[in-house]
Amino acid sequence: MAEIKKLKLSFERKRVDDDLLHVPLESAEHAYQLFKEMENEIREKVICVHLTEKYQIISFEVVSIGTQSYAIADPVEILRGAVLVHAAKIIIIHNHPLGSPEPSAADIKGAKSLKEKSAVLNIELRDAIIIGEGGFVSLAERGLI
Questions:
Q1: In sequence order, which ranges of the chain are alpha helices (DSSP H)?
Q2: How far apart, in whole angstroms, are the C-alpha atoms of residue 70 and residue 30?
Q3: Which of 9, 11, 46, 58 allows an S-S link to 94, with CB 3.0 to 4.6 Å?
């Protein structure tokens, strides 16, 4: 007898302040406050936040964990969860464990590519945020995506 795989989607909960969760996620500062603890990570991590059309948080997913200097974030991996939860918008957040939140050329190129690919699925890449030592950079606020 052969076997077939069953796809199982489950959710875990992350405790956050009520003030941060029960309002639309419309600013990079708000996203930074939700995931500020990424400043203390020793490896680069990529998170995708799934949003409704009105910027309400549906869920978030850790899509990649890399080394202290890079993480590979395949657009298919990023968008899979967004499609499964019927997200209208996404925000990508990753950290730079070695310090500065300034985006690299690869960060900008990857965000632009993801924006194009997500648009094909009618999912808006709202922002790509980099968290570093003591702060963050929003690629959308800088006009880079």
A1: 18-21, 28-34, 75-84, 105-120
A2: 24
A3: 46
Q: What angle do CA 75, 109, 87 make, to 5 degrees?
A: 35
Q: Please tell me the predicted confidence (pLDDT) of residue 8.
A: 75
Q: Return the percentage of the chain with pLDDT > 90, whole number.
A: 77
Q: 129: which DSSP letter?
A: E
- Rounded Cα distance between 125 and 127, Å, is 6
Residues of the chain with pLDDT > 70: what percent?
A: 95
> β-strand 124-132 against 89-95: which pairing, if any?
parallel
User: What is the pTM (predicted TM-score) of this model?
Assistant: 0.89
Using H for helix, E for strand and C for coil, what is the string for the chain? CCCCCCCCCCCCCCCCCHHHHCCCCCCHHHHHHHCHHHHHCCCCEEEEEEECCCCCEEEEEEEEECCCCCCCCCHHHHHHHHHHCCCCEEEEEEECCCCCCCCCHHHHHHHHHHHHHHHHCCCEEEEEEEEECCEEEECCCCCCC
The amino acid occupying position 103 is: P
In this prediction, residue 19 carries a pLDDT of 65
In the numeric block, which tokens belong to residue 84? 């499964």
